[in-house]
Design goal:
The chain has 332 residues and is α/β, with parallel strands linked by helices. It folds into two domains: 144 residues, Response regulator (Rossmann fold); 153 residues, Rossmann fold, CATH 3.40.50. It is 45% helix and 19% strand. It has twelve helices and 15 strands. The strands form three sheets. Strands 7, 8, 9, 10, 11, 12 and 15 form a seven-stranded mixed sheet that branches. It has a six-stranded parallel sheet with strand order 3-2-4-5-6-14, sandwiched between helices. Strand 11, helix 10 and strand 12 form a beta-alpha-beta unit. Helix 3 packs parallel to helix 11 and helix 6 packs across helix 7.
């Protein structure tokens, strides 16, 4: 673990430089049509991907605090599962209230575009937070981590833990999600390019269900006795993967590199079930989402694209206040 800690300190520094790079590439411009500087009575709403996910709870806390600071009304909602059929009615309900601004984490890159376009055409300033859609005309601003870079960092960290040998598998939520698709790409590309002695197994999907993720781990262990590493690319998946490794009696033998840093994940890191967490900064995504929505409402320039911080966390650095501040919240 000591060698891993030294390596990851470099990783943390590199990842902390990502926001400046992303913002440097961002375009600016109003892209908002007419706006009013008066925020009196204006409402900004947030629709998250899954309402009980610690990532989105932390984002909501940040957005709520910033909305209060900006002097706009705020409310948040989200579905119980990562599902288009559950998120669409929420979008329709919000559209009926005609909010001045909407922050949203769309659960699909294409399926919800017509709904968001209709809402945007009706005058609501839409900001895409965390996830995006393929249609570049949707959203006055897009705010997210550099997920592909995070996937690459997860690959290097996991390969080191695995001793650069054995089989590895990626377990993810479902295809067609902008963030997790990028993480998978980054992970797979880096393993193929830098760790050729590791055998990549086909990606499997759990529909954001921890129980299914645990089942996938156990069935993969049975089919591939040389399984040595798992990349779990979101909160719910990581919880299930850790449980599955424990249930298979493989704690410590199968290494886990996981995206996000929810309370359960942090506990799994403390007890040695998980070796590396790639934490995002969802609170900052929420804060900046509200800032960009307010700017658009007021007719001021906005940043078209904003990148936020990623931090690699291990047992060696998790007690550092500069690192532990990125742990996610279970409530505001």
């Amino acid at each position: 673990m000591g060698t891993m800690g030294k390596a990851m300190k470099v990783g943390v520094l590199a990842l902390l430089l990502l926001p400046a790079t992303a913002c440097g590439k961002s375009g600016t411009g109003t892209g908002t049509g007419s706006g009013s500087g008066n925020l009196s009575g204006k409402t900004v709403q947030l629709i998250v991907g899954v309402k009980d996910d610690p990532f989105y709870i932390t984002m909501t806390c940040g957005a709520q605090a910033e909305a209060q600071k900006e002097g706009v009304k705020f409310s948040a909602n989200g579905s119980a599962q990562w599902d288009v059929s559950q998120q669409r009615p929420i979008i329709d309900s919000v559209a009926a209230t005609k909010p001045a601004g909407l922050l949203i984490s769309p659960v699909d890159t294409d399926a919800l575009t017509p709904d968001l376009k209709q809402l945007q055409d009706g005058g609501t300033k839409v900001v895409l937070v965390d996830t995006t859609v393929s249609d570049s005309s949707i959203g006055v601003s897009r705010i997210s981590s550099d997920n592909e870079a995070g996937g690459k960092t997860a690959a290097d960290a996991l390969a080191k833990q695995m001793g650069d040998k054995g089989s590895a598998i990626v377990i993810s939520v479902k295809p067609g999600v902008s963030t997790t698709d990028a993480r998978i790409k980054g992970f797979q590309d880096q393993i193929k390019a830098a760790h050729p002695n590791i055998t990549l197994l086909p990606v499997q999907y759990d529909n954001d269900d921890p129980a299914k993720a645990a089942q996938i781990v156990q069935s993969t262990v049975a089919a591939h006795p040389d399984l040595a590493g798992v990349f779990a690319d979101n909160v719910k998946t990581a919880e299930g993967v850790a449980a599955g490794v424990n249930q298979a009696g493989k704690k410590g033998a199968i290494k886990i590199s996981a995206f996000d840093a929810g309370p359960t994940q942090v506990q799994d890191l403390k007890n040695g079930t998980v070796q590396v967490l790639i934490a995002q900064d969802p609170a900052a995504i929420g804060v900046q989402g509200v800032q960009q929505a307010v700017a658009a409402i007021q007719g001021k320039p906005v940043q078209a694209s904003i990148g936020t911080t990623l931090v690699a966390i291990t047992s060696d650095n998790m007690n550092d206040p500069n690192v532990s501040k990125y742990f996610y919240k279970g409530s505001c």
